[in-house]
Amino acid sequence: MIHQNEIANQLNSTEPNDTLSRRRRGKHKMFIGMAPGVGKTYRMLEEAHRLKEEGIDVVIGLLETHGREETADKAVGLEMMPKKLIVHGGVTLGEMDTDAILERQPQLVLVDELAHTNIPGSLREKRYQDVEVILETGIDVYSTVNIQHLESLNDLVAKITGVVVRERIPDRILDEATEVVVVDVTPETLQERLIEGKIYAPEKIEQSLQNFFQKRHLVALRELALREVADNIEESAEKNSTPAAQFCNVHERVLVCISTYPNSAQLLRRGARLATVMRSRLYALFVDHPERFLTRDESLYIETCKNFCLEFGGEFICVKSANVADAIAATARQYHITQVILGQSHKSRWEILWRGSLVQKLVRYLKDVDLHIIATEKKEFKRF
């Protein structure tokens, strides 16, 4: 992730704009919120003013105030690019003039409502496509979008709110962003803003409160926004982390260690319940000893456990190793596991005293991982 000062330093580069554009792709900072009115555009304009004071060449490529006076006032003092006029259906409408922005070559351009669909007859169908063209020339972009406009969340948002969102952006836009900022307010605050007329015109307030702006809808959308950005941060950290670097999990990750013992299905169900409660990722691990041949029934059982794991939305991992403890510890580190679920040992007390227990070894190997030992009865293997 690129921080504010770093972006400012990059924007303040003394290199000519044409040299800079050949050297790098523009940086994209997204301001994302749970619903209209949370303050995404206002926050974007605030940051733009600070950068302008630092000497950055900032322009507004497209601003949608929706009649909100506070937002319009915040734009005062920033250069605004004229809109490109397009005649459609006998009516003249305005769109962002991407060509004019490219010709102007600012260091930073502000683009509101990233998911907007352009007027028919425009060179590109979607505003995010215009932004991609701008980024490719080396110009940095600040943009705004609401969580319900993400493509992968479309069905879920429709289920929560009863509203099918027509304007959407592909998830890769969020994934490829240099920085993502969640502009967050409580549902109660957002409803107050709506009632005070700070979001929509008076005639739309009551209808909005009864539909999209119901508190339960806002609570769910807020959680979606926070969770989506948390996932985005964690995935970015995971991709950029080195084996030696300490990785900080945003979410819990549950690893269920299975074997050919029939209690493994029970362990998987317990792990799936834990993952659901924690809203975490689920993994199942089978350590296959290279010198041990699995019987047909045992192979079928492991395959059944794999299918269980996939049905629960988890990821099944199989590694070959003669050392079970080492294999579990290595997998836990590789996948940044926070919770490990094991079945109760079936070794005799003498074997544990002589060779040590798996749990004792894992406690030594995994300092920051919680171990769950599930008591199970020893059963004879039965064919499925």
Automatic annotation (TrEMBL):
GO MF annotations in UniProt: phosphorelay sensor kinase activity
GO terms classed as biological process: monoatomic ion transmembrane transport
Region (Disordered): 1-25
Superkingdom of origin organism: Bacteria
Keyword rRNA-binding: no
Keyword annotations of the record: Ion channel, Ion transport, Kinase, Transferase, Transport, Two-component regulatory system
InterPro entries: Histidine_kinase_KdpD, P-loop_NTPase, Rossmann-like_a/b/a_fold, Sig_transdc_His_kinase_KdpD_N
Name of the protein: Osmosensitive K+ channel His kinase sensor
